[in-house]
Each structure stands twice: as C-alpha cells, then as structure tokens.
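quick one, 263 residues, struct below
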Amino acid sequence: MPVDEVAGAAVELARTAAEDAEPGMVGDHLGVVGDEARVVTHFFATKDPGYRGWRWAVTVARAARAKVVTVNDIVLLPGDEALLAPEWVPWSERLRPGDLGVGDLLPTAADDPRLAPTFLMVDSEADDDLGFELGLGRERVLSFEGRLDAVERWYAGEPGPEAPIARSAPATCATCGFFIPLSGALRQAFGACANEMAPDDGKVVAVDHGCGAHSQAVVLPSGEPTPMASNEVGPGYDVVGGPLGHEPGSVSDVEPGEPLGHS
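---
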C-alpha cells in the first residue's frame, strides 16, 4: 500500500504520542508503512531493556481532502529479533504423567479418541458384562485406539521386555507363578505382578517382562535337616551274637592286623 504523503510526514506527531505512552523510552524512527488509503504506521525503537527487539507502532490517519493528521493507535510490537514467550499450550496438553496430585481433577474431552461408548465396544469376552456396562456401569470404555496407545506405551516402557531388570531376569513373567493375566483383549500380552518382593508388585507387566523374583528362580532349602537314606547293602561284615565284645569271632576279638570276615 502506498504511503500517504501527509500522514507519512507526521513523524514528530507519532513520536510525541509514543512518548506519552512511555516517557523517555522512545528511540529512533525505524520507518513507516502504508496500511490503507491515508492511514500509515510509524515505527520507533524502544529503549526499555525489558523489551529487547520490540518497537513502538503508532498509527496515524487523515480524512479525505484534510490536511490534519490524527493518532489512531499506539502499541508496542515485537520485531524480527524480539524476545518472545513460548507459544501458549493448553493446560490439558502440558500435563505429563505424574503431574496429577491429590484432589486434582483431569476431565476428558467428549470426543477423546481413546474412549468409546460402551455399546460400540462389545466383544465375545464382554457379552456377559454388557448389562452391567449399559446399566449401572461405565458409559465409555477403551476404544481400539485407546488400547493400542496403552499397549505401545507399556510395552516400550518399564513393564516391557527391554527394561534393564527384564533383560537380566532368569525367565519371563508368563512362566512365573505370581503372574496374574489381565482379562479381555489384553490378556495375551499383559498381566499383574502379585509378588510383594518384586519391584513390579501390583503393577501391569508384559508377558515377556521379568525380574529376579521369578517363582522358579531359586528353590531354597526348608531349613530342617534331611534324614539320611538307609544303607540297604549292609556293613560288609558278620556280627556274631552273644555278650558284646566277648564271643569268639566278634569284632572285639579280632587281632590287630587280622582281616575282618566278610559275608
């Protein structure tokens, strides 16, 4: 848009208006641009150290066939090198796992893709619970996208097979006696740990996860002495009856160096 000659020449008028907004903080005239017919904006540098790279924008105008210019607007605008705050992100998108505290509420959107109306997510394993779900139970359940999102997150994280503790485990959770499979569509891939000594006690783990508290990792002794097995072969010599140690042929009557009688 061409710059109106009269309005473009009103530099001092524009400067005075900017000085009224913030006295002593208006610097050099940086230029002028035409906005519309007989409407232009003058730009001035700001001396405010808190607004580095910003500039004053003063818009002036004049009526048709008039020679008098008036001030329409004064605003401080960022330049190309201005220091700006990060782009605003809605609070619901700023939340991260672990941010929710006691008493906090995290509402879900009505069109959350992770959830679906219960009657749309009926499968063979949920038929028995359909009456509960549609009556007194949940109005929405996990959609296919919601399940997939959870599966990918769990499997790639600490409950999955690539966790350091799982890579050093003697066996997988699927073969552990403390492993409780989940019900429904996730049964084949995940379960809960029920070993109070395990780091994942009470948590969801993948079937190919694992830890050192596996039920078959080590079989410890009971702590009671084990009776020795009886010797069915015999001592290898004959014991002759009679008063102990006085019958001929008894062990006590064998001369030193004489071989024992074998059976």
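Confidence is low (pLDDT under 50) at residues 241-254, 256-263.
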